[in-house]
Amino acid sequence: MLGVSRSTYYAHRAAGPARAVRERAEEVLVGEIRVLHAGSRGAYGAPRVHAALRRAGRAVNSKKVERLMRKHRIAGITRRRRRGLTRQAKRAVFALDLKGRDFTAPRPGMRLVGDMTELVTLEGKLYLATCIDLATREVVGWAMADHHRAELPVAALRMAAGRGGLEYRCIMHTDRGSEYTSDEFRTEIGKLRMRQSMGRVGSCYDNAAAESWFAILKAEIGTTVWETREAARADVFRYIEVEYNRSRLRRHPDYGYVTPLETRSLLRQNLAPAA
Known about the structure:
single chain, alpha/beta, 6-stranded mixed sheet, two-stranded antiparallel sheet, 9 helices, 8 strands, 43% helix
């Protein structure tokens, strides 16, 4: 009646136990995928979930992970563009662009990028300034306040320097916002024996690495409006120091999927002189 041959029918019946085992194994794998996806605040797509599974000792094909995530509607977060804070000062003193949209660095502590963003709370806005190491993409300096005056990025820069490892004449690249063209920020750059670099005003591509990090933060942190500034501070602190620097996987051209701190360690090992 079904037009199926006798051999096909019996072959299907014989494969039943193996098929049941395979389906059960996929159910277990989907459970592991859901755990990793939830642990990333829903941010990881198939490539990072696959990398996390491999790091956990799970030998699985990337195409299978992609297929199962698509089948069970498990998707990573798509980032949205943000409105920047950049406001050029009327009597600004600009620095040359020493980067030229080259957001790479061979060594940690050689080149940093910085930017600021605003976070919305029911108590009012909270501002976040960051310094990111281009060799590792680690957030090495950050500061938060209820204002975005020059002392905010200065505090982030001091944290980056306080952690150590910045080279003499390290480049600090930012946009042309009034906070970065201020006397306070320029003076701090001089005290730390760094070099200041700036992109053009209104060109997001000239500081793309710093702006991209804020897009990651706002996509992955999972909260758009906090009840209090203190709650926002705690959440951002946890994201930067626990989730991003130490846990978030990023594809490195030489090392594969590694965290920023692992990248720092690997680069230092490669730069260490042979015994």
